[in-house]
Design brief:
This protein has seven helices and eleven strands. With 325 residues, the chain is of the alpha+beta class. The protein has a single domain, classed as Hotdog Thioesterase (Thiol Ester Dehydrase, Chain A, Roll). Pfam families: MaoC_dehydratas.
Length: 325
Amino acid sequence: MSETVLNETVLSEIPSLGRLYLGAAGAAAKARLSSAEAPTELPAARHTVHSARVELDRLAAFQRLVLHSASDYLPSGYVHTFAFPVALSLMARDDFPLPLLGMVHLGNRVQHFRPIHYTEPLTVTAWAENLAGHRSGTQVELVVEVRAPDSAAADPAGELVWRGRSTYLAKGVFLTRFDRPQAPAQRPDFVPPQPTALWRLGADAGRNYAMVSGDFNPIHLSRLSAKALGMKRSLAHGMYLASRVVGDAVPDALDAFEWKIDFEAPVFLPATLSLNVCDREEDGGYAGTTFTGWNARSLRRHFAGTVTPLDTAAAKVGETAETLS
């Protein structure tokens, strides 16, 4: 397999999501007035921030919002929230082929290699991969790695403590280099399991998460701002849903784990969600957790996923070929 060399841009600090979204709004306005040909390839670039620090008050606010118990160790969903602005700064580049505003979150795969204490200085690196056609537009994967200093680590960049791969869809954006895929075969009807929890999300759920995470994407803030980007109502952040359910699904004693989530339908606000979180056992021991969230009235499944214990050595070796340098 050929290796793609990525040019590294070192940022002085974790970027402000608010400023990135404002810049994206201005760039979108200019693009509508410009006849210049837009890029169709992903930039051969990675963005990095060294020795970034978690702010304890923001961590505590996040834990309260997603109903996590207070802890000095970072919830896996919070690591994504902390590192996400670095990935967003990549998407805000002039040579990024998809518009930042209005991106729809399709899913995540996260490997959490060990507990991460909030005092550890963290190096965050992000890049983009796998630009592809989608029946509803164009999708892309954003990869983020988080490392912590460790004199014993084989990699001089530090110990890899967290890796996330997020898939996003630019709805309605069809790049000419891709043929539009055919619609998939119809899914079997969803038969909901017995609910183990019920979530009630108010119309302000998107704004509340934005205040904690800094993710002020307009599709989450209000009916009017969401309609301006083609949505019928504002919708819940995918990472709010993922962070909350993964926090419920990960056992307290599990230090290294992998979690996956696929979003099948947006959660328009306000909303009531039924949840099923179910542990699995094999040979008398914990083997993982499955979770599903759905609308009990319409029987529409919104998301489904898993948590599984992680063999950290095998996981780090297995993804070496996917880590671009």
